[in-house]
Specification:
single chain, 151 residues, alpha+beta, Glutaredoxin, four-stranded mixed sheet, 4 strands, 12% strand, Monothiol glutaredoxin-5, mitochondrial, 2Fe-2S
Amino acid sequence: MSFIRSAVKTSTFFRPNLNTSFRSTSLFARWISTEMKARLDKDVKSKDVVLFMKGTPDAPMCGFSRAAVQILQVQGVDFNKVNAFNVLEDPELRESIKEYSEWPTIPQIYIKGEFIGGCDILLNMHQSGDLEDLLVKEEIVPPEVQEDEKN
């Protein structure tokens, strides 16, 4: 392998383009503007749970966004305490959040400012019990009272 190919392959200066669709076959990855990065830094910390989705929690516009909302509802998350951003209203936000998180799909969930993942990760965490543990640990939902404690 040539020196240049090796340097490009291992350099953090050249960022890979995660979107492999036909329209993004350019050689250069899109970079987030300084203003958008500052906005996203602020947005992901705006509430304990932040959801970037297609549509709104009341009217999701895709099945994955609907599933993410339903999982959070089943977990007992109060949506008055969730900041949800509809990426369909802002094309720049839609593309920038993918680069910001280095995650290629929507929806995206942040808890206490930390990126958790998309719908698939949220579903896996829900099924394993890890999501409930995280939400209780971060004091987003109260711990479930066991039957033995009630009697």
